[in-house]
Amino acid sequence: PPAHSHSDWIGPPDKHSNLRPIIFYVPPEESALEWRLREARQEAQASNQRFWALHNRAFRQEKEEFIYSRLKAKGVEMRDESGQKATLNAEEMADFYKDFLSKNLKKHLQYNRDWYKRNFRITFLMGQVALVRALRWLRQRKKNIEQ
Amino acid sequence: GLFVWRLRNTGVQQIPYRFVPLYHIANDRLITFQYFNFLKRMYVTQYNKDLSQRAKPKSDSIESPFHEPQQLDQGKKVAHKISPLSPVHQSWSETASRNELREMKSAAETEDSVIPVGAESKEDRQWKEMKLRLDDLPGILARLSKIKLTALVVSTASAGFAMAPVPFELTCFLLASLGTGLASCAANSINQFIEVPFDSNMNRTKNRPLVRGQISPLLAVCFAASCGVPGIALLTLGVNPLTGALGAFNIFLYTCCYTPLKRMSIANTWVGAVVGAIPPVMGWTAATGSLDAGALLLGGILYSWQFPHFNALSWGLREDYSRGGYCMMSVTHPGLCRRVALRHCLALIGLSAVAPVLDITTWTFPLISLPINLYISYLGFRFYRDADRSSSRKLFFCSLWHLPMLLLVMFTCKKSVLEKEDKGDLPGRSRERAMEIRLP
C-alpha cells in the first residue's frame, strides 16, 4: 500500500488459508482505544491465518493419503498412461469427507467459540472508536462554528 | 452440460431460506424457465378464475437467506469461472453458445461479481484500499443482504398472504411484504457478519462483501440493525403483533440458532427448514391476524419442500462442507440425507391432500398437483436409490420449479371466501360479486 494512504489495505486471498490479509493503517496519534482495536484485529487475523493454513494443509495432505491408499487397494497406479493423476469419484471420497469432518469437529467447536468472541469484541471496539471519533468531530465543528 | 453445471454448482451452500440463485444454464428448458421466472415476479391482477392469470410471485430458489442456507447463495458462479467454459463451447452450436454467453452476461449483471471475464481474476490479485465508496454502497448492501434470496422470501410470504381466506387488502399486503423483506435483509447480514472466515474458504461464498473487505463488520451490523428494527416495528405496528413476533422469532432462529448450529450438529437442517417455513405463515397471519390451520399447512408445505431441495443441493458440496467444518447430513449421514429427502417429497403429496380438508382450496388442488408431486417424489426415490451426482442434480432442479408451480396451482384452486358464504348461488354470480368486492 502507498505510504500516504490513510486507510487499511486488503490483499488477495492467501494461498493456504484463503483469508485475505489486511495491512492496518497506524494513525500518527493513535489513541489507546484505537490501539486496542488494531491489536485485536491483528491478533484475530494472525490466529485465523494459523488455523486455516494448518487446517487446509492437513485436509489436502490427508486427502492425498486417502486417495493413495484407496488406489493402492484397488491396484491402480497413481498416474495412468497419459500421465494424468488418478482420482476417486465422489462416492468414494464421501468416506474421507465424513471421517475428516468428525475428526476435526472438536477443533472446529473450539475455533468457533474463539472466533465468535473475537468477532464480537472487535466489532464492539469498532463501535466505540467510531463513537469517539464522531464526538470528536462534533466537538471540532462546534469549535469551528464558535470561532 | 455436465461440466458447465459443475462449474456453476460449486459452493452451493446452506441457504438462508434454502433458496438457490437462479441458474443460468444453456439448457433450453431452463432458459425459458428463467424468463418465466422473471415474468412471474409481476403481479397480474386479472381476477378471472378461469384464466388464472394472477401470476403469483414465484418463490424460486436462489440460494439462500433466511437460510442461505448455507447454502443458499448458489453457484451464481463467480465470474472468473466463466473463462473455463470456453472449451465447452466448441461442442455447442454457434447460436447455443451465443445464447449462453448472453445469458451469462445478463446473469453476471445480476450476480454478486459484476465484473467481466478475466478482469475479475486480475483485480482479485491486487491489494485494495479498504475505503467505503458511496456509489458502491447499494451494490454492496444488496449482496450483504442477499437481496435475491430476500426477494424469494418475500414472495413466499406474499403467497401466504394471498392464500388467506380474507379479502385482499393492498396496504396490509405491502406493509407485510416490506416488513418481511427488511427482516430478511437483517438476518442475512448478520449471518454474513458471523461467517467471514468460513465464507472465505468456500467457493460459493468467497466473494461476499465482508470477505472481500468492501465493508466493515461494524457497518454490516449497523445495516442489519437499521433493517431489522424498522422491519419488525413495521410488522408489529403496521400489520399486527403476531406477524411482528414471528418475524423477530425468525431472525433469532436464523442468526442465533441455525448459523451456529451449522457447525455443531446436523440438526441445523431441520431448524433451517423451519426458518424457511415461517414467511408464508407470516403472510397468512398478516392477512388474517391469527394462526390458523391454513397457515400451518402452508408452513408445512414449505418446511417439507426444504428437504429435497437442500439435501439434493448439499450432495454436490460435500468436499467444501467437510473442509469448512460444516455438519451436514450429506457428509455425516448420507443415508439419512437421502431418506429424509424422499420422506418429505412424499409428505408434500399428503399435505396437498389436506388442503381441501381445511377449506383452503377446492378438491381440484390435490388432483392437479398430484403429477408434479409424484414427479418430485419419483426423483426423490431415484436420489435415494442411486445416491449419485446426476440424481441429486435432477432432484434439485426439479425442486426449483416445483415449489412455484405448486403455489401457483394452490392459488388458482383457492376456495373463494364468498363461495363459502353463498353456497347456493350460481358460480357465475358469486364470481362477479367476488370481482366487485376485491377490486378497489
From TrEMBL, chain A:
Note whether Amino-acid biosynthesis occurs among the keywords: no
Membrane topology label: Peripheral membrane protein
Keywords, alphabetical:
Membrane, Mitochondrion, Mitochondrion inner membrane, Transit peptide
List where in the cell it is found.
Mitochondrion inner membrane
The UniProt transmembrane annotation reads none
Q: Name one Pfam family in it.
A: COA8
What GO CC annotations are associated with the protein? mitochondrial inner membrane
Keyword set includes Membrane: yes
Report the InterPro entries cross-referenced here: COA8
Task: Choose any GO biological process term that the UniProt entry carries and state it.
Answer: intrinsic apoptotic signaling pathway
Which family is it part of? Belongs to the COA8 family.
Please state what the protein is called. Answer: APOP1 protein
Q: What organism is recorded for this protein?
A: Erpornis zantholeuca
- In the UniProt record, the gene name given for this protein reads Apopt1
From TrEMBL, chain B:
**What class does this enzyme belong to in the EC scheme?**
transferase
| Catalytic reactions on record | heme b + (2E,6E)-farnesyl diphosphate + H2O = Fe(II)-heme o + diphosphate
A biological process (GO) annotation for this entry? heme A biosynthetic process
Q: Where are the transmembrane segments?
A: 242-261, 364-383, 395-412
Pfam family name, one:
UbiA
Q: Where in the cell is it found?
A: Mitochondrion membrane
Q: Which topology term describes how it sits in the membrane?
A: Multi-pass membrane protein
| Keywords of the record | Heme biosynthesis, Membrane, Mitochondrion, Transferase, Transit peptide, Transmembrane, Transmembrane helix
Question: Could you state a single Gene Ontology molecular function term?
Answer: protoheme IX farnesyltransferase activity
Q: Name one GO cellular component term.
A: mitochondrial membrane
Which family is this sequence assigned to?
Belongs to the UbiA prenyltransferase family.
What is the name of the protein in this document?
Protoheme IX farnesyltransferase, mitochondrial
Origin organism is Erpornis zantholeuca
